Amino acid sequence: MFEHVPRYAGDPILSLVQTFLKDPRQNKVNLSIGFYYDAEGKVPVLDSVAQARDRIDVSAPAVYLPMEGDAQYRKAVQEAVFGADHPAIAEGRIATIHTLGGSGALKVGGDFLKAHFPGSELWISDPTWENHYNILGGAGFEMHAFPYYDAATNGLRFEEMLAALRQLPELGVVLLQPCCHNPTGIDPTREQWAQIADALAERNAIPFFDMAYQGFGDGLDEDAWIVREMARRGGAMLVGNSFSKSMSLYGERVGGLSVVCPTPDEAARVLGQLQATVRKNYSSPALFGSRVVGTLLNDPGLRAAWHGEVAQMRTRINAMRRGLRDRLQALRPDLDVDYFVTQRGMFSYTGLRPEQVDRLRDEFGVYLIQSGRMCVAGLFEANLDAVAQAMAKVMD
Ligand code: PLP
Ligand code: TYF
Fold first, then answer.
1. Residue 129 appears among annotated catalytic residues
2. What is the pTM of this model?
3. Where do runs of H (alpha helix) occur along the chain?
4. CA–centroid distance, residue 219 to ligand 2 (Å)
5. Mutate which of 33, 81, 108, 131 to test ligand 1's pocket (most atoms within 8 Å of Cβ)?
6. Structural domains in the chain?
7. What pLDDT digit, counting tens, does each position of 211-265 carry?
8. 334 is catalytic
9. ipTM confidence score
10. Which of 64, 271, 278, 390 is the most exposed place for a label (fewest CB within 10 A)?
C-alpha cells in the first residue's frame, strides 16, 4: 500500500540534534537548534512559569478549549504583543487566537490569507527560517525572496531590500521578523523599519510579522516596537507570536495569531474565519500551556517576575556575545568579529562556509547548522574558550 511513499530525508536542524545526541565526545557543544540554555547549559524552567504552573488545578477536567482558545489567554497575548494600552485593543480592532506555537500562527495565518486573498503571493527575507518555506509553501503560497543578508558586511542589504519592497504587487504578503531575525541576528533599525512600513503602505501590501523571540533583543516592549507602531498607523496586518523561547515552554505549543483590522466589524469577521481555519486543521488548541501562560500574564506579580527573567536571559546572551567576540579578537586580530555583538537575539550568522561548519563539528565537536548559523544562547562559561579556539582555527 505505501511502497510508493518516499522516505523523509528528515529536517536538517532536528536531524543534526540527533547526530549531536549520539556523539560520544564529552566536550561536544550544541549551538545548532534554537534553544535558550542557562549558565549551566540547561534549558531552564523559569521561576515565574513554575509558580504559575503550581497555581493550576490539575484535577479540573480537561474539556476542549474553544476553537480560538481561552479568553484569558487571548487577552494576555494581545497585551504582550501590543502593550496593554494600545489603541487598537481599546478600539476592538484586533482578532487574536491561541495557536500551536509560532509555527501554528504561520499555518493558520497562511491558510486564512490563502483562502481570502487567493491571488496574493508571498515575499520573505533571504535567508529565512527554513520552516517558513515548509509551512507557508504548504499553505499554497508562491514564495519569493527579498534581499536581506549582506555577506560582505555581515549586515543588512537595506537599500536593496527597500527597493524590492517598493516593487511589490498590490496585496502581496510580506513576512517580516520584528526582532532577533532567525537565522541572521540582523534587524533593521527603527528608522529603517519606518521606511519599510511606508513602502508596505504605498504598495497596499499585507504585512505578516513572525515574532518568535520577543524579549531577547532589547526588551519585551522594545522588540515589538514596529508591530505596535504599524498597528497604530491603522493598516491591516497579521502578527504571529510565540512564548516557546521567552517562557522556555517549547513543548507546550503556546503562541498566538493576531490580525489587526481597520474596523471592529472586520475584526469580528476575521475572528470567525480564524475559528473556521482552526476547526478545519485541528479543531482546538492545547489546554495546559495556555492555562500556565494565562495565569502568569494575568497576574501582575508573576508578570513582573517574568519580565525580570527574560531580562536575565537577554543579558546572559549578550555577555556570551561579548565573551566570544573578545576571545576571537584576541586569537584572530586579523578578523573583524564585531558582528557577534551587533547581531541580536539567539542567533548569529557567522559567515562560515559549509566545509568550515563540517570541520567545527568533526574536529572539535562544535555543532552549528550548515548555513553557518550559530545559536549563541548555547554558549556558557564552561564552553566559551573551547568554542572560540575551535572557531579561530577554522575561520579565514
Ligand atoms: N518563527 C521563527 C522565526 C522561529 O525561529 C521559530 C522557532 O524556532 C518559530 C517561528 C516557531 O516557534 P514555535 O516553536 O513557537 O512554533
Ligand atoms: O532552531 C531552529 O530554527 C528550529 C527550532 O517544533 C524548532 O527549527 C524546533 C522544533 C519545533 C519548532 C522550532
1. yes
2. 0.97
3. 12-22, 47-54, 71-82, 87-90, 101-116, 130-138, 158-165, 190-202, 225-233, 264-281, 287-297, 300-331, 339-342, 354-364, 381-394
4. 22
5. 131
6. 12-45+311-394 (3.90.1150.10), 64-298 (3.40.640.10)
7. 999 999 999 999 999 999 999 998 899 999 999 999 999 999 999 999 999 999 9
8. no
9. 0.95
10. 64
